[in-house]
Request: fold
Amino acid sequence: MAKIISGKIVSQRVRDDVKRETESIKAKNGIVPGLAVVIVGDDPASRVYVNNKKKACAEVGFKSEEYALSAETTQEELIALVKKLNASPEINGILVQLPLPKHINEKAVIEAISPEKDVDAFHVSNVGRIMIGDYHFLPCTPAGVMELIHSENIEICGKNCVVIGRSNIVGKPMAMLLLHENGTVTITHSRTKNLSEITRNADILVAAVGKPKFVTGDMVKNGAVVIDVGMDRDENGKLCGDVDFDSVEPKASYITPVPGGVGPMTIAMLMKNTLMAAKIQNGLI
Ligand code: GUN
Reply:
């Protein structure tokens, strides 16, 4: 029987901390952190994410600005908006919701965001900082996973950590954060041979593969810590993760559920990054 790590509880704690500190810098320094969220087109999933981000900003006491642009917006127009936001003293964090329409080069847009305002930590300069372990912002999902692991005081040092998935947003930075805490890290992916052999060695297993119920009980060592980053739909259209909870939970020592695990952490960490950005830009750090 695994202990369930609740992202609902841990994310609430993070947001409460952010709210408290926001009230304090507002009172002492007159600073209100500001986040700009840019959405292009009408992808329904992106719309839900953006609404949740706006709601979270209001809850912690940030100012938020939403820029909802039509799907026909050109790359030049989008980059012009990013540059305007880079120059705005009211805005401390800029988030351009991905994916962008096909005619826009995501990389060019991300590179246009000022690294100091890049609260997603997607800009190459922030990615490079993470590589060398000298960073202000961490990408929100891997940072949320670390917060969940820390919330249970789970030891990472010397442990076999296996990450399934090598995306720039989750898999690669996730591996780096575990490595910074002295985990022995293996990154696996779609071309990995004998995946189960590798995952069965994992003391800490992070699934970020994007395939519903991909990790099954036979792939997991007894007593492993299993973190599920997936947000998938099962054969009945029901929300599920990358981990087959029913077969994995009996073997794991800790497991995160979907929903209610890593998902709520992502927005909480975005709030934390935006507060950090506001503090840095106002010389408080
Ligand atoms: N689309 C899905 N997740 C994310 C995220 O964390 N940041 C941005 N900018 N877009 C996303």
Summary: The chain has a mean pLDDT of 97. The chain has two domains: 30-114, 140-263. Residues 95-98, 120, 140, 266 surround guanine (CB under 6 Å).
